[in-house]
Amino acid sequence: MSPPFEPVVRVAGLQMTYGSHDVLTGVDFEVHPGEVVCLLGPNGAGKTTTIEILEGFRVRSGGDVRVLGEDPAQAGDAWRARVGVVLQSWRDHARWTPRRLLEQLGGYFAPYSTATHPRPYELEWLLDTVGLTENADRKIGTLSGGQRRRLDVAMGIIGRPELLFLDEPTAGFDPQARRDFHDLVHRLSDLEGTSILLTTHDLAEAERLADRILILAAGRIVADGSADELTRQVAGTAEVRWSRGGERFVHATEDATPFVRRLFEQHGEEITDLEVRRASLEDTYIAMVQRFESGDRTAPALAEVSR
């Protein structure tokens, strides 16, 4: 069934060449309203180039790109006010305070506010949401790396973007800050309807945040689906482990649920230490990239999940 709304991002045949080097050779994907999509790929695969083209910071060599209905290479300020960007490294405004900086940035978005989509976010709410209330009036130069990263996030979302780009968003975050950020991403997508496209090297983060995962390798998208869908493509079988009567058993099966049901029907309470294992997203990612980079372009595991 087709989605009820037009895609927020539509990329078809995207190409990027630097001299004689083809970085992107035909990238195709879509992002739909309210989706959280994670772009994965090895270093040099073209993730940053792809994101910069979508943000309007780099001009593509070929293909068609539409972001919020416009070509980013030609879009103006009204379009840019609808897009949020959190870069991988912070911007250094050492003598400013977070409050002052965010007030200034918020003023840029105010002219593009509408009745249905008011901009910017209310400042005190934003400071509390990203965990900067206690440090809002300190000079930015005195903040820790994690606190500066929180400020980066605040700067990226203050305009209440309809589409948010996140490049390694939790780099420098401690575990609690990372969890708080994940909650924020879910709040933006679930309650605000914000579409989010992120890159990360943290596969656990990708699995926790993303509705869909795209894997970019050798210049094009080689896999597209949820973490569970992609894992099933690479490892259709599950490994069931259990103990009975002091012995340890292992069995591979394509459908673990009926197997486990039969196991309990046969042996009941004799079954202990039951465990069902599937390939992790990390296993899946490595297998897909290695398979494609080895020249195997026809492997079923690389086919897109039908949607």
Task: Give a verbal description of the structure.
There is one protein chain. The chain is an alpha/beta fold. It has two domains: 9-228, P-loop containing nucleotide triphosphate hydrolases (Rossmann fold), CATH 3.40.50; 236-277. It has helices at residues 47-55, 77-80, 98-109, 123-129, 145-157, 175-191, 203-209, 227-234, 256-267, 281-293; strands at residues 9-18, 21-31, 36-40, 62-67, 83-86, 163-167, 195-199, 212-217, 220-225, 238-244, 247-253, 271-277. A six-stranded mixed sheet has the order 5-6-7-3-8-9, sandwiched between helices. Strands 2-1-4 form a three-stranded antiparallel sheet, with helices on one face. A three-stranded antiparallel sheet has the order 11-10-12, with helices on one face.
